[in-house]
Amino acid sequence: MQVNIEESWKKVLASEFEQPYFESLVHFVKNEYKTKTIYPPASKIFAAFDHTPFDEVKVVILGQDPYHGPGQANGLSFSVNDGIRFPPSLQNIYKELEDDLGVSIPSSGDLSRWASQGVLMLNATLTVEASKAGSHQKKGWETFTDAVIKALAEKKENIVFILWGSYAQKKGKSIDRTKHFVIETAHPSPLSVYRGFWASKPFSKTNAFLQSKNKTPIQW
Questions:
Q1: Pick from 156, 159, 163: which is nearest to 210 by CA?
Q2: Which of 43, 73, 57 is nearest to 9 (CA)?
Q3: Whole-model pTM?
Q4: Rounded-to-integer distance, Cα 182 and Cα 196, Å
Q5: Residue 126: is it exposed, middle or buried by C-beta count within 10 angstroms (0-12/13-18/19+)?
Q6: CA angle 139, 59, 75 (to 5 degrees)
Q7: How far apart are CA 117 and CA 198, in angstroms?
């Protein structure tokens, strides 16, 4: 099956695109876009992969669903388009970034500047119906993104996996901790941020690890 995704990922994930579950998923998603308002725009479904080719991945930040409000989702986990008010989780990510590294809170919520440095901003589910959180869960996306994580974990080494919250931690439980650096904390949402997200310093920890492996740190 032809999938419009960045070439290095197309090679790595070729076997997934031939699986029956993926054909069913494509059929479902195409029909949803024809009949309903779906986010992100269809051209941005694989934006995380297009911004961060397989060979360039140094860090993975795992989210759950795309944002489901108008104009928010741009295909990168936790990211929103320029000019869009920051959702609460992103506000808290920026507050922690400021506390951790002294980085002033940016005016833009578009995290493509991280993605272009090797940070794969991956959601577990890549599409969602407007105003209906979780509406495209259990349709096949999770199987696909599990395969993405497996490919990274098995074919590469010394990746930093940032797993915020129990959902991301369950999804990343099979990652070999002897090959990769895994950061697990509470989710940055207002419901859980006080359970261990504040002062967790994921950004400085990530850069310290990358530098210890002679990799260029991320300009957060």
A1: 159
A2: 57
A3: 0.97
A4: 15
A5: buried
A6: 40
A7: 24
Q: How far apart are CA 42 and CA 137, in angstroms?
A: 17
Examine the residue annotation and report whether 82 is marked as an active-site residue of this protein.
no
- Token pair 């930040």 is found at 61
Which member of 50, 55, 65, 82 is catalytic? Answer: 65
C-alpha span between 127 and 32 (Å, rounded):
10
153, 159 contact by CB (below 8 A)? yes
The dihedrals phi and psi of 57, each to the nearest 5 degrees, come to -70, 120
> Angle at Cα 155 formed by Cα 153 and Cα 158, nearest 5°?
55
pLDDT at 3: 82
18-38 pLDDT, tens digit each = 999 999 999 999 999 999 999
| CB-based contacts of 184, cutoff 8 Å, min separation 6 | 163, 169, 172
Dist CA 97 CA 103 (whole Å): 6
Percent of the chain whose pLDDT exceeds 70: 99
What does DSSP say about strands 160-164 and 128-129: parallel, antiparallel, or unpaired?
unpaired
DSSP letter at 206 equals: H
- The residues near 43 (Cβ < 8 Å, ≥ 6 apart) are none
Pick from 103, 127, 105, 101: which is nearest to 48 by CA?
A: 127
In angstroms, rounded to a whole number, what is the distance separating the alpha carbons of residues 162 and 59? Answer: 7
For residue 1, pLDDT beyond 90: no
